[in-house]
């Protein structure tokens, strides 16, 4: 996907002004935040489970080459083909080649954010293969002119039911429905023939398991099963190389956290573990199974100060709880991954200079770190990206000069005392007889939206000296 | 008990009276309070902006000025969090400084944490003045809450002072200040603080009490801009000291 993160400010402004979106985004706190809060109480030892999950994820990541090789051997011995792609573009090419090799005309897809990195649908269409999104949310976006998802687990969280009713009526050319069960039934009626006529099924992979050579797929709609065991001759799994877990036990540990942190469910409706293509005597399954494992910038994080980001299990809790995401939604972030995790991943995978706003557009309130099931120190990572921007001279001149001047004074107490003395008197003067200042040159970011409470006109240390 | 007070740059310049309320509380707790004259700022603006060099210089300055005290008290969760939790990161490549900081860090306290858990102050100067402040709600500032675990301490102290706290919805949700974030993304920041203001109003409180100047200026600034001249925004030290 092309990076649009440089338009963050403009987009965020538009989203803030979109009253309908503002209403729709309230679902995040009413549904996901409270759902998670109650779901985690079901675990006897939530902290212990988190620590175990961290240990298991890091065991995989610290020896990623070993576990990927183990996975490759095991999956191959089960009859699957494992391919590695250095870039998202290469991964797209590989999937297109697989489709061509098997004469594929139509491919059903279950939800995959990595396929968004790859801009896979566009590549397939260009090669004459029709991609059909089958996750309900992704389907809605696809029929709405290939709109981008705004959330990693709830791709249409930015839309309300009314918008979707209008869209279905227009695209399906049927009477407008407003009852959700009826609407989903209509979507199923549209998708069923697609499942039955597809030649290939493409799925993401929440994890791949090294000891068994399996892919683990977590969904609520069961569409991943329809994509993989209904007629398709070919099943292609696309996922990131960091998604490997050594054992099924590791997967079990992580699964105690994933649905609870994501949707507030104890377990998702479907958890599929798929191992190899159809064997002799199997009633169903694809004839060919491929894994396309994408690097796309991930190995660059290994051994770096951002390594911890690789243990992310893609639950979306960080964005659900983010005060900034809650106000501007996912599209403002301008690439595949939004919210705090996206603000770390986008600069890391798509170039720090292409996403200068993202690490800055955070209050560093720390709630993402608190709710992250694998305790990724997201605020620290965002701060480190800010340090990188400074080191690479990517900050605007006014900010650099401002900080330098401030630091010059802060390091020199005598000068600082004089400067603050003058500063507070200036602010007092600006306020006139009032308690607050309504307009302050150079601080428009503040006074365009807020009053600046005026200081009393003397510093504490002046007054302290006078009183002693 | 010799206590070094970091007044913090925002209290020093914007709200000196909170510094005096803090002094009153520490003295009531029987502390010998020293205000090191050379102090300026803990360096958080530099650290959060990615200027590690300036942040490190100010961290060294802080350690030199404050390591001689039995305790260091800071009437702000974000400055406290910066000193207590982030300085070790700034010194991580320098064993000598790191060791000095590690000796100092356990003695650094946010004000209410210190009053409640170290000084164990039971008789608060603000006791009996609760009528003057009316109905109160408490906003949990992010760094104090998440970096220092300040949540029960201010409430317990307010209770001792006879001030009843009516909790607002999502009291632990960020107010949208975020330091330079509030200037760089003023529109997003104000959308976030609007929600905080609505929750304060819905609680029916006459005053919102908090422990951080950043949140204070942000919430007060937005309340006043949107025409609320009534709801008071008070630092917890002012209420506990009875300076209301």
Would you summarize the structure shown here?
The complex is a heterodimer of chains A (468) and B (244). With 468 residues, chain A is α/β, with parallel strands linked by helices. Chain A is 51% helix and 11% strand.
Task: Give a description of the structure.
The complex is a heterodimer of chains A (468) and B (244). Chain A is α/β, with parallel strands linked by helices and 468 residues long. Helices cover 51% and strands 11% of the residues of chain A. Chain A has 22 helices and 12 strands. Chain A has helices at 8-17, 19-39, 46-62, 64-77, 88-101, 113-117, 120-126, 136-143, 161-173, 180-197, 223-229, 248-262, 317-320, 323-328, 339-350, 357-360, 367-371, 378-391, 397-410, 413-431, 444-447, 460-467; strands at residues 81-85, 106-109, 130-133, 200-203, 207-209, 214-219, 234-240, 244-245, 270-274, 288-294, 436-437, 452-453. The radius of gyration of chain A is 26 Å and the shape is elongated. Chain A starts with 7 loop residues before the first helix and ends with a helix. The relative contact order of chain A is 0.13. The mean pLDDT of chain A is 96. With 244 residues, chain B is α/β, with parallel strands linked by helices. Chain B folds into 2 domains: 2-118, 3-Layer(aba) Sandwich (Rossmann fold); 130-241, Rossmann fold (3-Layer(aba) Sandwich). Chain B is built from 14 helices and 7 strands. Chain B has helices at 9-14, 16-28, 44-49, 52-66, 77-90, 95-104, 111-118, 130-133, 142-148, 152-160, 181-184, 186-203, 213-225, 236-241, and strands at residues 2-5, 32-34, 71-74, 108-110, 136-138, 207-210, 232-235. In chain B, the strands form 2 sheets. A 4-stranded parallel beta sheet of chain B has the order 2-1-3-4, with helices on both faces. In chain B, strands 5-6-7 form a 3-stranded parallel beta sheet. In chain B, strand 6 (207-210), helix 13 and strand 7 form a beta-alpha-beta unit. In chain B, helix 12 (186-203) packs across helix 13. Chain B is globular. The mean pLDDT of chain B is 97. The chains are: A alpha/beta (468), B alpha/beta (244).
């Amino acid at each position: 996907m092309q990076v649009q993160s440089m338009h963050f400010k403009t987009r965020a402004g538009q989203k803030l002004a979109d009253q309908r979106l503002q209403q729709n985004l309230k679902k995040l706190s009413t549904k996901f935040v409270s759902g998670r809060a109650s779901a985690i109480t079901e675990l006897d030892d939530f902290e212990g489970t988190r620590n175990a999950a961290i240990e298991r994820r890091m065991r995989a990541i610290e020896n990623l080459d070993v576990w990927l090789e183990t996975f490759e051997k095991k999956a191959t011995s089960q009859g699957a083909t494992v391919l590695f792609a250095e870039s998202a573009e290469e991964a797209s090419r590989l999937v297109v080649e697989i489709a061509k090799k098997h004469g594929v005309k139509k491919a059903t897809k279950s939800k995959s954010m990595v396929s968004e990195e790859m801009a896979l649908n566009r590549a397939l269409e260009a090669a004459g293969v029709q991609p059909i999104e089958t996750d309900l949310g992704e389907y809605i976006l696809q029929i709405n002119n290939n709109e981008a998802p705004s959330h990693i687990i709830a791709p249409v969280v930015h839309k309300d039911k009314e918008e979707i009713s209008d869209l279905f009526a227009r695209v399906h050319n049927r009477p407008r429905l407003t009852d959700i069960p009826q609407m989903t039934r209509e979507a199923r009626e549209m998708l069923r023939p697609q499942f039955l006529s597809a030649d290939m099924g493409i799925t993401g992979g929440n994890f791949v398991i090294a000891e068994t050579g399996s892919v683990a797929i977590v969904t609520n709609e069961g569409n991943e099963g329809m994509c993989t065991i209904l007629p398709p001759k070919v099943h292609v799994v696309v996922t990131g190389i960091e998604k490997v877990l050594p054992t099924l036990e590791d997967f079990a540990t992580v699964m105690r956290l994933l649905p609870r942190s994501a949707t507030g469910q104890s377990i998702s409706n479907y958890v599929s573990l798929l191992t190899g293509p159809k064997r002799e005597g199997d009633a169903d399954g694809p004839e060919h199974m491929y894994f396309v494992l994408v690097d796309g910038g991930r190995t660059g994080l290994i051994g770096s100060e951002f390594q911890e980001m690789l243990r992310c299990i893609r639950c979306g809790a960080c964005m659900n709880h983010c005060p900034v995401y809650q106000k501007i939604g996912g599209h403002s972030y301008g690439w595949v991954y939004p919210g705090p995790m996206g603000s770390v991943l986008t600069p890391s995978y798509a170039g720090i200079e292409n996403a200068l706003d993202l690490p800055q557009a955070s209050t560093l309130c720390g709630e993402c770190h608190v709710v992250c099931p694998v305790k990724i120190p997201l605020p620290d990572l965002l701060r480190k990206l800010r340090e990188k921007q400074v080191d690479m001279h990517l900050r605007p001149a006014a900010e650099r000069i401002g900080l330098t001047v401030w630091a010059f004074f802060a390091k020199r107490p005598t000068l600082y005392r004089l400067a603050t003395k003058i500063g507070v008197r200036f602010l007092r003067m600006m306020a006139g007889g009032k308690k607050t200042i309504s307009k302050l040159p150079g601080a428009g970011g503040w006074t365009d939206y807020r009053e600046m409470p005026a200081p009393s006109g003397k510093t504490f240390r002046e007054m302290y000296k006078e009183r002693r | 008990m010799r206590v070094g007070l970091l007044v913090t740059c925002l209290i020093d310049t914007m709200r000196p009276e909170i510094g005096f309320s803090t002094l009153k509380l520490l003295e009531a707790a029987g502390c010998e309070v020293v205000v090191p004259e050379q102090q300026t700022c803990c360096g958080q603006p530099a650290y959060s902006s990615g200027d590690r060099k300036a942040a490190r210089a100010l961290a060294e300055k802080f350690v030199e000025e404050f390591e001689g005290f039995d305790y260091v008290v800071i009437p702000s969760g974000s400055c406290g969090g910066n000193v207590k939790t982030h300085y070790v990161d700034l010194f991580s490549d320098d064993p000598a400084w790191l060791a000095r900081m590690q000796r100092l860090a356990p003695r650094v306290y946010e004000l209410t944490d210190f009053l409640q858990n170290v000084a164990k102050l039971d008789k608060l100067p603000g006791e009996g003045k609760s009528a003057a402040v009316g109905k109160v709600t408490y906003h949990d500032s992010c760094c104090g809450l998440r970096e220092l675990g300040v949540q029960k301490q201010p409430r317990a102290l307010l209770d001792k002072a006879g001030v009843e706290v009516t909790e607002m919805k999502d009291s632990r949700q960020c107010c949208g200040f975020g330091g330079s974030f509030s200037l760089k993304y003023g529109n997003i920041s104000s959308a976030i603080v609007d929600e905080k203001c609505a929750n304060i109003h819905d609680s029916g409180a006459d005053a919102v009490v908090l422990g951080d100047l950043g949140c204070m200026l942000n919430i007060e600034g937005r309340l006043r801009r949107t025409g609320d001249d009534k709801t008071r925004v008070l630092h917890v030290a002012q209420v506990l000291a009875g300076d209301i």
